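agent: user wants the structure for HTH gntR-type domain-containing protein from Vreelandella venusta. delegating to structure tool.
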Amino acid sequence: MSQIDPNLLDRLKEFVSVSELSKDGRLKLPPERALCEHFDMHRSSVRNVLSLLHSLGFIERKQGSGTFLKMPEPVFIQLYFELALKLNYISVDHLETAREMFEKEIVQAAAVNHQSHELKQLEILCDKIVTSTDVLEGIQADYEFHELLAIMAKNPAVLIIFQGLSSVLKKVLHQRRVLARQSKEAQKKTNETHIAIVDAVKTRDRELARQAMHDHFETWNQHTMRTFPKAEEVSLPVE
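agent: tool returned. relaying tokens verbatim.
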């Protein structure tokens, strides 16, 4: 197996920087030979970098057309969090707490920046959460509801981080949602918090939206029996 360039991350950024705009408006990388000459690299090293970019979803190869840059799915963010969990650098509780903090900011931006058609879609998802009798359908609607809020925030960086966090937490959140749905009272109360979020977003009032999301998580944690570690019990590895 050929070795990867030790300055691989710098190489990745450099490869992206030499892309050119194609006729159809997409960013296109030069041919392998040109990359070899530009960076004074062996062809095998260039292919290693291209292979990694492709694995991460940053490039798309089209036979006869060339290699194009694209925005990937947030798989690299998901991988980072998954590995951090495996290595015990962070815990599920750390991730959940971060997501709650993050969503309180997201909903404020969504309240200010949303468009009318997005609000209608949010109402549809909320109605599905409240009325669905199918557990999996309700859970999927719940995920899409929060993801749509991230989209409504109109900040691509926010959406990438949200999708990375939520993907890693999906299995855990699934178990907690199933738990909440075992009690009609718990299900009713958690569902009603989604209605309150929609109503708050409609007002375009940032503070009202933040409070609605805060109340949502307070109710959610109460009815899914989430426990929080004491400050002295939380430890992070020393750098």
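agent: one observation worth passing along. The first strand starts at residue 20 and ends at 21.
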